[in-house]
Amino acid sequence: MAALLCLAALQEPGRWHFPAGSWVEMDTRSLRVDAARSRTDRVDAFPGRRVPAFSDGLQERSRRADVWQGRPCVVVEYDGARLWLAEGVTLPARDLGGRALPPDAVRAERTLGDTTWLMDVLELSIPVEAAGRSFDCALEASTSFSVLPSGTRCLRSWRRWLSADVPGHVVRQDRQCTGDPSAIPHVYDTRDELRAFHIGR
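RESULT FIELD:
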């Protein structure tokens, strides 16, 4: 089945580090009480494409030591961006606003034009049951705020359970997309969950 637009984030370059022929099937359902519909979409992997690094084109301004969840980390300041890099952390490939995050990035902020992106890693290791097995996942939450040319405010939020064992690295994902100016981030209305996957040879 062809992948729908709502799963486009799973196809972004940099998420796919698996051989050609790899794929995932994701079950999608509404989290609203009044809408119990669900569907399954298949997303095929496209290896070999590259996402620009988070720092590409950014001028580094400073570095300072900090602590994240009891771990030493470094906060790197750029023009319009900030990145927290935690010692001893290695996370699956991810991106923020179309920019590949380093594997040790546990928090990030970036503003470009009328859009601001925020990302926080909430847990480094949490078990998730999906596709008939258990995955050891990292849990992250991210948000983007945009102001469209019409002046409409667009809010998108995600909570993702990530595993390096799955093409696309998303085992479960809660998401929200709204133009409601009074909307609160991370009030999710949709869940995508891994149904099946295949790693090509």
